[in-house]
Write a structure and sequence with these properties.
alpha/beta; 7-stranded parallel sheet; 3-stranded mixed sheet
């Protein structure tokens, strides 16, 4: 059984743990940041072997605080780290502000134009991320589960990341998202986009690896969640809760066992089922339904023309093709 949380449930669990004295907010940030670095090194052992260059994108909330921890730990590992902040420093939560100050003692924070990223910001980001010695890792610590509206101002940065990862002739950087890729709704898996960017691949951050804290979120497994999250790792940050009244949504069976279904139906296989005459199509119909349930993108049941009405009366989401003879079968197979 897999436990999934909504954004509100996760915030309530964190708040309860802090209020009970079980853990402090700073301790949670430190555990989250260390866990992310370990997850990155486990996923890509070549990044552990020696120092590289990383770009960390931090937002104005606690997700950004986690990002500052990641930046500090990578710097201590010997990496060259560039940090960008999107948002207003004066409105940063206290724990995130502490980790901001810890990073400032080690390195620079570059501001991204807020609320709208400018062309100059994009040029600076491109220089730091791609043209200066080659970046091997981009850390998305912009919003996590806190996002509730389109991130219109950041679209140019998300577009740069997407374009470089798609079209670069060099080794593109790996993108790791903290908790939820920025731009993705943690509850529905839908991309929170404005009308201008709806449907565009850069409407949300496209992650290679997403590290979720404490529990996976519902949005990781719905709609575009699997496509934008990449590989999902759930990190134990030491929050203990076993009360039956805990705000946990349980999903059965284990959602981790399901294949990610991003893509067109033809990219997931086309099954052809051959059926007998009227009154003898039950096994073929059961097979067609089974093919759909195990993941075939498209299923076609081919049967004698006179059996079409019978099969149509029993089947949904299955294509029907009349096959009267060998020539008809050859046409379907073609």
């Amino acid at each position: 059984m897999t436990e999934l949380l909504t954004a509100a449930q996760m915030r309530a669990i964190e708040a309860a743990a802090i209020a009970s004295g079980q853990v402090t907010g700073l301790e949670l940030m430190e555990r989250a940041g260390r866990g992310v670095v370990e997850a990155v090194f486990e996923e890509w052992p070549d990044l552990r072997a020696t120092s590289h260059r990383a770009v960390v994108l931090c937002g104005p909330g606690n997700n950004g605080g986690d990002g500052f921890v990641v930046a500090r730990l990578l710097k201590e590992w010997g990496w060259a780290v560039e940090v960008f902040l999107y948002g207003e420093l004066d409105r940063m939560p206290p724990d995130a502000r502490v980790n901001y100050e810890r990073w400032v003692a080690m390195g620079e924070v570059r501001g991204l134009g807020f609320p709208q990223v400018t062309e100059t910001d994009c040029d600076e980001f491109a220089k730091c991320a791609y043209l200066n010695s080659g970046t091997r890792l981009i850390v998305d610590a912009l919003f996590g589960i806190s996002l509730s509206r389109p991130i219109v101002g950041l679209s140019p940065i998300l577009e740069l990341v997407d374009l470089y990862a798609t079209f670069s002739d060099l080794m593109p950087p790996r993108v790791v998202a903290l908790d939820v890729p920025s731009g993705l709704c943690a509850d529905s898996g839908r991309v929170i986009a404005d009308a201008q960017n709806a449907g565009m691949p850069w409407a949300a951050m496209q992650a290679c690896l997403t590290v979720s804290f404490h529990r996976g979120k519902v949005g990781h497994h719905l709609a575009m969640g699997p496509a934008f999250s990449g590989k999902l790792e759930v990190l134990d940050i030491g929050i203990v809760h076993g009360n039956a009244d805990s705000p946990v949504r349980s999903v059965e069976p284990d959602v981790a066992s399901f294949e990610k279904r991003a893509g067109h139906k033809f990219s997931h296989g086309h099954a052809l089922i051959l059926s007998g005459p009227p009154g003898h199509g039950g096994a073929a119909r059961m097979t067609a339904r089974g093919a759909l349930r195990i993941g075939a993108g498209l299923v076609t049941l081919a049967c004698p023309p006179e059996a079409i009405p019978e099969n149509a009366a029993h089947l949904n989401a299955v294509m029907l093709k009349p096959v009267a003879d060998g020539a008809g079968l050859a046409e379907v197979l073609a």
